[in-house]
Amino acid sequence: MTEPLQLEDGRYDVLVVDATRDGDEFVIELTILSGDHKGAVVGVRAVGLDTDELELLGLPGTLDVENGVPRFRIEK
């Protein structure tokens, strides 16, 4: 089994490749578009989104990692 990807602190351009609603949360998979981790897929959980899974697919966004904690922002 592969180890989960640990991203260094920084800003990453990403694209939503999968999204699934899990109760009040979304499980969102993102692919990184450039840099050392280009092509890697990372997963995040999000709450409070006013959308559905299909509307998220293919959307670009930004993943900011600070002190190892990711924060995802959709670019609409």
Domain count: 1
Number of helices: 1
The residue fraction in helices comes out at under 10%
Radius of gyration: 12 Å
Sequence stretches where pLDDT stays below 50 over 5 or more residues: none
Mean pLDDT over the residues: 90
Q: What gap, in angstroms, lies between the N and C termini? A: 35 Å
Please trace the helix and strand order, writing H or E for each element.
Answer: EEEHEE
Structural category is mainly beta
Main β-sheet description: 5 strands, antiparallel
Strand runs, count = 5
Tell me the strand percentage band: over 45%
What is the strand arrangement across the widest sheet?
3-2-1-4-5
Shape: globular
Lay out the secondary structure:
Layout: E1 10-22, E2 25-32, E3 41-47, H1 53-56, E4 60-66, E5 69-74
Antiparallel strand pairs: 1-2, 1-4, 2-3, 4-5
Write a structural description:
By secondary structure, this protein is mainly beta. The chain has one domain (14-74). It has one helix spanning 53-56, and strands at 10-22, 25-32, 41-47, 60-66, 69-74. The chain has a five-stranded antiparallel beta sheet with strand order 3-2-1-4-5. The longest helix is centred in the C-terminal third of the chain and has 4 residues, at 53-56.
